[in-house]
Amino acid sequence: MRASGPIRALIAVACLCCAGCANPPGKPTASSIIIDPDKVADFAYLFKENCSGCHGAEGKGGAALSITDPVYLAIADDELIRKVVSNGITGTSMPAFAKSAGGMLTDNQVDIIVRGIREHYSKPDALSGAPPPPYAASENGDASRGAAVYETFCSSCHGPGGKGGPKAGSIVDGSFLALLTNQELRTLVIVGRPDFGAPDWRNDVPGKPMSSQEISDVVAWLAARRPQFAGSPYPVAETTPGDHR
C-alpha cells in the first residue's frame, strides 16, 4: 500500500529531524573546540609559532641565525639551548619564551622545543671527528692579536679591515656589530654561515682550523669596532645665536 501525500510529508520531516540530531544546533564541532595553549605539545607547531618568525622555516636562518645547524648543535648542549629559549639573550632581539621569565610557554613546552630541535636536526658526524672549540671562551681575547688572526682567516672574503671584499660583505659595520653580543660573534665564527657560503672554524683556511684562542682574539678585534651608539651618525645642523629651532 502506497503512503498518501500527507503521510509521505510527515515521513520526510521525521527523517530530516533524525538527521539533524547527529549535529544539533549549538553543539560544538571538533574543529571549534578551543585547546588550552598550555596543553599544546606538538613540536612542529610550537617551533613554527615561536621560533620560525626570526630563525626561518625549520630554523635554517632568517632575521636571526640558524639554530638547527648541526655544527651549532654539536657545540651547544641542551642546557644552554634551554636557557636561551627560556630566558632570551639580554641586549638582543632574542626574547624570553618561558612563563617564568615573562614569556608564554610552560617549562614542558620549552623542553619539547629543545628536545625536538635535537632530535630533528642534530647529526652525530657533524664535526667529522674534529674536536670543536668550546662554545664559550675561557678567557678574554686580545684585539691586537685579533688583527693578525683576521688577516689570516677572514680577509680573503671580507676584505681589508673587514669592510667587505669580493666574496662577502662588511663585518665591521656598526649596526651589524651592535646587534650581536661577543658570544654570538664567537658562535658565528665557529659555526659559520652555510646559507651564505661562509665556512666554519675548520675551513677558513683549508687544513688549518682556528684555535679557541684565535677565535677569542678575532672576536675581541671585532668587538673593539662596535660603536657606543648604533646606527648611522647624522650631521648636526649649524645654528646661529638666538636660533632655537
Task: Report what the structure shows.
With 245 residues, this protein is an all-alpha fold. Among the domains are: 37-121, Cytochrome Bc1 Complex, Chain D, domain 2; 143-223, Cytochrome c-like domain (Cytochrome Bc1 Complex, Chain D, domain 2, Orthogonal Bundle), CATH 1.10.760. The longest helix has 17 residues, at 5-21. Helices cover 42% and strands 0% of the residues. The model has no long low-confidence stretch (mean pLDDT 86). The chain is built from eleven helices and no strands. The chain has helices spanning 5-21, 43-50, 52-55, 70-75, 78-87, 107-121, 143-153, 155-158, 174-179, 182-191, 212-223.
Secondary structural class? mainly alpha
CATH fold naming of the domain at 37-121: Cytochrome Bc1 Complex, Chain D, domain 2
SSE pattern, N- to C-terminal: HHHHHHHHHHH
Please tell me what the overall shape is: elongated
Instruction: Please describe the biggest sheet, giving its number of strands, its sense, and whether it closes into a barrel.
Output: none
CATH class of the domain at 37-121: Mainly Alpha
Please bin the fraction of helical residues.
Answer: 40-55%
